[in-house]
Amino acid sequence: MNRPTLEVLPIDISPYANGNLGIDYVHRFDSGRPGPHLLVNALTHGNELCGAHALAYLMEQNIRPDRGVLTISFANVAAYQTFDPSAPAASRFIDEDFNRLWSTDILSSGRRSVELDRARDLRPVVGEADYLLDIHSMQMDGPALMLSGVAEKGRALARAVGVPSFVIADGGHKAGPRMRDFADFASPEHRRTALLVECGQHWRRDSVDTAIETMLRFLTALDVVDSDTLADHLTASAPAEQRVIEVTHVITVESDSFTFVRDFAGLEVVAHAGTTIALDQGRDVVSPYDNCVLIMPARQLQPGHTAVRLGRFVA
Fold first, then answer.
1. How, if at all, do strands 166-169 and 131-138 pair?
2. Is 57 helix (H, G, I), strand (E, B) or coil?
3. Cα gap 23→18, rounded to integer Å
4. Order of strands, edge to edge, in the sheet holding 276-280?
5. Closest C-alpha to 272, from 247, 297, 290, 287
6. β-strand 131-138 against 37-42: which pairing, if any?
7. What's the pTM value of the predicted model, to 2 decimals?
8. 151 vs 193: CA distance, rounded Å
9. What are the strands of the beta sheet with 37-42, ordered from one edge?
């Protein structure tokens, strides 16, 4: 396999190690004026570098809330610190996926791992936020995606942010709950809302630009930072229209022999129902309906993990 071109490399985040909440790499800024509490999180996965660049930009540019409270967190720093350019995907996590741990049962269990210990440290920070933006990037080279969850409140917030162009209404992973699905974030009845943005391919420079743009628009959409304050920092116009894809099926890898029938990059539309898209232990995995959209096909196919999500465009 050819080694990927690394347009983005890790930056030194040690200046942000000493947080002001007694938790390493977590900083809170309180405007002293009424308003919501926003959390912007990066490095849920240690190999997804764009979020670290975005939070460093926010700190270096001294962007602070005009109303309400803004908290920022660098999550799986331990994994990030293992980054090796010769094997850039290997720093995703140390022991287990940090983004499959976010249920009360898992966080309150007796088991231990590097990621679970860190998630427990961050649990009160996540639990206090009214709104969360969790910044990620993707294995495959494709357009950025906003994962809004299945509740209408998530789609509404995605529309208010305005970027990126594609909004994915999804229900998460069989392997475990994500931070954006923790507690009230997943409840349609509760106003607390979380978004997860996939900013593009891990190693591309434009994934950093997308992370910064999305973060700044998140701050203005929730009226925590005045749009005039950020006018000089916004580099792109919001798309004229966002397209929403509603996830209907999550295909989970069942065996070590799972293979896609071709090299899917994501957002391909399979025109006809019953079309084979993958094989798993000789069993055909087929599109369930016409005009089926393939979302974020995985490159590392491990049993029990998501291979691809299937969805359809909705109004």
1. unpaired
2. helix
3. 8
4. 259-260, 276-280, 283-286
5. 290
6. parallel
7. 0.93
8. 9
9. 26-30, 69-74, 37-42, 131-138, 193-201, 145-147, 166-169, 243-252, 306-314, 292-295, 269-270
Amino acid, single-letter form, for residue 204: R
CA 290/CA 288 separation, integer angstroms? 7
Q: SS3 of 168, please? A: strand
- pLDDT, one tens digit per residue, over 2-15 is 667 899 999 999 99
Which is it for the CA torsion 17, 22, 26, 32, positive or negative? negative
Q: 8: which 2 tokens? A: 């983005």
Assigned token pair, 60: 């270096």
Spatial CB neighbours of 271, under 8 Å, sequence gap ≥ 6? 290, 291
pLDDT, tens digit, for every residue of 58-115? 999 999 999 999 999 999 999 999 999 999 999 999 999 999 999 999 999 999 999 9
Domains observed in the chain: 14-230 (3.40.630.10), 245-314 (2.40.50.630)
Token pair belonging to 252 = 């989970």
